[in-house]
Amino acid sequence: MARKILIVSASMGAGHDGAAKELSARLIAQGNSAEIVDYMEMIPFRLGGVVRWSYKFQLRHFAWTYDLTYQAFSRGGAFLWAPVVWAMGLLTRRPIRRVLLQTRPDAIVSTYPLASLVLGRMRAKHWLKVPVATFLTDFAVHSLWVHPGVDLHLAVSPESATRANQRGSHASVATGPLVPERFNFSYVTRDDTRRRLGIELHTRAVLVVAGSWGVGDLKSTTQAIAGCGPEYHPIVVCGQDENLRANLLAESFSGTILGWTEEMPSLMAASDALVENAGGLSAMEAFASGLPVISYQSIAGHGKDNARVMAQAGVTRRVNNKAELADALADTTTPGSKRDEMIAAGHALFVSDPAESVEELASATDSAALMAPFDSPRGMRRLGSAAAVLVILYAVLTIGVHGVAALGVGVAKAPKGVTNTVYLGVRVDQRELNNWALDNAIHKINASVIVDAKVARNSHKILHQLTDSNFDIVNGGMGVSRTLRWNRSRDDCDTASLALAKASGLSPKVFMPGRSIDAFDEFYCRTGKIKSKLVRADNKFLPPTVPTLSDRKIYLLDARKKSATAVKASLEKFYQQAQTKGLQIQPLGQLR
Q1: Cα-to-chain-centroid distance, residue 529
Q2: What percent of the chain has pLDDT over 70?
Q3: What is the CA radius of gyration of the chain?
Q4: Roughly what angle, to the nearest 10 degrees, separates helices 496-504 and 460-468?
Q5: What whole-number distance in Å separates Cα of residue 100 and Cα of residue 110?
Q6: CA 259, CA 416: separation in Å to the nearest integer?
């Protein structure tokens, strides 16, 4: 019996769309009917386009903010995303119902995380009577991909299915990636494509991709590959970013620079290895094509996460620098056991057809019962929509602002590999700063002096002396409070840095406020006129006390309005405890 399947995708990149189109084609080939809808089009007030544009802009220009959000939602789980899902459910529930009444499906499949969460919540509330499946397009299963209300999660690998179960899925199965049949390795098209592109048959061709949007640093990646030796010929696919293609062509690289192309199967057949940065659709296509995959300079968020999980599964080679890239290229482009093992691991992912699992899920559906009634007066609906928008804004400006900072995301930390070290900053006021003996005591144990702009403006002479004596001087903010958080962060991170630079003659590289930090601080520290690292203390203490020291931790001694004797006593106790525990003291400027 033919089944009707509704596929909910999103115009947020080739991965979601590509999986939806391939699933649709397979379902139709099996005699079913399938229809794809764009979840972005269901968001009212044309906000879907705003979401798409902001996501693209964020990845290209403020990737660190995407990384913050990705990590925060990963660690915070439902506590962070539940309000957003509730709000989006209110905004899109009626468009979803309208589509259901038009298509009357036997099952729904989502290839977009936010749609999966909304549909899963509707299933959990028993509003939606049609079973829902989620196809997990990523190797790394983020918490935003999984909702316990979803009936079935289809994963691209056994590792992904296991992670989905760990995140709350009731049923997960590893079917393998959704890749069209045309991605089959063929040496017939290999030679033909190479001749057409002007690539010598003996040359090692390396296909370089960055998704349909061309996100990432393709220029440095291409340079790195070219620097590995003249035997490598990069084939760079820039996607829809024509500016990127033009810039790369202007650099006169010894390679092939392409824009958007429908010839990816031929390009993969002509190549000896693939270098990618996100673990998306191109990587899955390479697995099907028998093309070894190298992850290099992975983009923020899901790109880094995918690279890590794929490497753990043995289907890719993850590299962190040019030297590792050279080794990986040599291994993956040379016939032998290392290359064969990667190809075999990629092929092993394709264990079954996801369309068959969807068809089985739809087999017991009564499509006459689509949704439970939820009609409400128009005034209440408008009130609910307004409340939903406010919840989204609240989540962005409060949970998003405070949550990421509370989780320690985006703040400076001890460098990797550094052990037996603690970091100390001493916050001083006007009186303490002008006590040269106290300043020397701080400098003697290798601690930082933290000064706010209010103090700095009246201390030009002493600050210049400290600068000349190689003190580590840290920005402590404005020294005055502001009501609006974004104004406070702008003044503390940017204006105060400029004031301290003017007073001391040296631009501060670190900002350590005496208050709690938030995402506004992280934004202004990275975009201000003076870029600085944001530091959050693991332990704040007052003289003459000293906390128990732990390796790689950051400490803040607030010496303001305290006697020089008490401050010196704290510094001496801190130093003695560090010596006893074998810990060296470093200034805050040594944090990464």
Answers
A1: 25
A2: 91
A3: 28
A4: 70
A5: 14
A6: 38
What secondary structure does DSSP assign to 521-541, as a single string? HHHHHHHSSS--EE---SEEE
Residue 367 identity: S
Asked if 450 contacts 426 with a C-beta cutoff of 8 angstroms, the reply is: yes
* DSSP 8-state symbol, 567: H
User: 3-state SS of the chain: helix, strand, coil percent to 5?
Assistant: 50, 15, 35
Per-residue b or e along 442-468, where b marks 16 or more CB atoms closer than 10 Å to that residue's CB: bbebbbbbbbbbbbbeebeebbeebee
Give residue-wise pLDDT tens across range 237-265.
998 888 888 888 887 777 899 998 889 99
Q: Is the pTM of this model over 0.85?
A: no
| Both tokens assigned to 289 | 């094509």
Q: Give residue 502's identity as a one-letter amino acid code.
A: K
Hey, which residues does 204 pair with through a beta bridge? Answer: 232
- Distances in Å between the Cα of 154 and the Cα atoms of 26, 132, 353, 356 are 15, 11, 10, 11
Distance of CA 351 to the CA centre of its chain: 29
**Domains defined along the chain, listed by start:** 4-179+356-406 (3.40.50), 187-347 (3.40.50.2000), 421-590 (3.20.20.370)
Measured distance CA(58)–CA(68) in Å, rounded? 11
Whether residue 331 contacts residue 316, with contact meaning beta carbons closer than 8 Å, is answered with no
The residue type at 155: A
Cα–Cα distance between 559 and 563 in angstroms, integer? 8
Model pLDDT for residues 266-320, shown as the tens digit of each residue: 999 999 999 999 888 899 999 999 999 999 999 888 889 999 999 999 999 999 9
CA distance 286 to 317: 13
Strands of 293-295's sheet, edge to edge? Answer: 256-258, 232-237, 204-209, 273-276, 293-295, 316-318
- Identify whether the C-beta of residue 159 lies closer than 8 Å to the C-beta of residue 313: yes
Q: Which of 325, 274, 277 is nearest to 300 (CA)?
A: 277
CA dihedral sign of residues 233, 239, 245, 248: negative
Can you read off the two tokens belonging to residue 339?
């290359």
Quick one: residue 175, left, alpha or beta (phi over 0 = left, psi -120 to 50 = alpha)? alpha
Q: What is the 3-state secondary structure (H, E, C) of 302-326?
A: HHHHHHHHHHHHCCEEECCCHHHHH
Residues 205, 198: Cα–Cα separation, whole Å: 11
Spatial CB neighbours of 117, under 8 Å, sequence gap ≥ 6: 81, 85, 88, 144, 147
